[in-house]
Design a protein that fits this description.
The two termini are 20 Å apart. The chain has eight helices and 17 strands. Strand 5 and strand 6 form a beta hairpin. The longest helix has 22 residues. It is elongated and about 65 Å long. With 300 residues, the chain is an alpha/beta fold. Helix 1 runs parallel beside helix 8. The chain has a five-stranded parallel beta sheet, with helices on one face. Strands 11-10-9-15 form a four-stranded parallel beta sheet, with helices on one face.
Length: 300
């Protein structure tokens, strides 16, 4: 890219790469910077993403979208972005060894999962031994014995949601007793969700499958599927330093065109809304990219 980018995208998950496709096809000079840590790469195989009847592995999906973006001229580089600030002519983006200027920026930095203290938990997620998204793959645990690990009312809501697929649901509450309100306890009991409170002492693996969790009081309990529902932390630090504002849940505030409270700074994907779905992230990216392109047209 001989000239400075007209649009700079931070993050190369489904949202960031989709925005790159749109902007490249709008014939914009597009630069994508990413740290190589897309959450979508954890997906063993997604069966709810449209267009893939047999499912698609997360890394394969990312590779497909990236190749498509590059075919239209987007430049994609791995670099840790350490700074984002408003400049006279747009924005200044800082990495470990370079500084970039761009008139507009799309943030697609996603979220960080709060994971339970289990051995090799990230590798276990990649192998479906531990699951993080009941909306994504609840169908795959239909009729199975399911455990949800959590420390707040969020976990109770996920346990109730999973009753859509199974009547054998257990909530393992590892937080303080008062972190699970009485009304949530009542809903769980009424719905037939088993509640276990206390830390997990041991994880038992059998034939590359997480088969049991051991507890001091309840002994060894066997499950077919285990979900973690400890919440996420939106990766909004760069946006906040640039002056953007957040909602009460920590996600970025955006308008109908995905623009944050900072003019020219857009955001798409999990750091914006709480559904954490690839399809919605890509839709938001398309909206953000189109709005950015139109914003540039107005100044040309």
């Amino acid at each position: 890219m001989a000239e400075p980018p007209e649009a700079l995208i931070i993050g190369a998950g489904p949202a960031g790469l989709t925005a790159a496709i749109y902007l490249a096809r709008f014939r914009r000079r597009v630069l994508v910077l990413h740290d190589g840590g897309s959450r979508a790469a954890w997906i063993p195989r997604s069966h709810n993403h449209p267009g893939f009847p047999g499912g698609v592995v997360g890394t394969d999906l990312l590779d497909r979208i990236q190749r498509q973006a590059e075919e239209f001229g987007a430049r994609i580089e791995q670099a840790q972005v350490t700074g984002l600030s408003v400049a006279d002519d747009g924005f200044q983006v800082v990495t470990a060894d370079r500084t970039f200027a761009a008139p507009a920026v799309i943030l697609a930095t996603g979220v960080l999962d709060r994971l339970p203290d289990l051995p090799g938990v990230e590798a276990a997620i990649r192998r479906s031994l531990v699951r993080i998204c009941p909306i994504c793959d609840g169908f795959e645990v239909t009729g199975q014995a399911v455990a949800i690990i959590g420390d707040s009312a969020l976990a109770a809501r996920e346990a109730l949601f999973l009753l859509t697929y199974s009547d054998r649901v257990t909530l393992i509450h590892i937080g303080a007793a008062d972190a699970l309100p009485d009304d949530e306890r009542g809903r769980l009991a009424k719905a037939g969700v088993r509640l276990i409170e206390g830390p997990i002492d041991e994880v038992v693996l059998d034939d590359n499958r997480l088969t049991a969790l051991a507890f001091t009081v309840h002994g060894k309990l066997e499950f077919d599927a285990v979900y973690t529902a400890l919440g996420v932390d939106p990766r909004t630090d760069l946006a906040i330093r640039a002056g953007a504002r957040r909602c009460e849940d920590g996600r970025l505030i955006v308008d109908d065109h995905q623009q944050t409270t900072v003019p020219g700074l857009y955001a798409a994907g999990d750091l914006v809304r709480g559904l954490n779905q690839i399809s919605t992230a890509q839709g938001e990216a398309a909206i953000a990219a189109t709005a950015l392109h139109n914003r540039l047209r107005e100044t040309e």
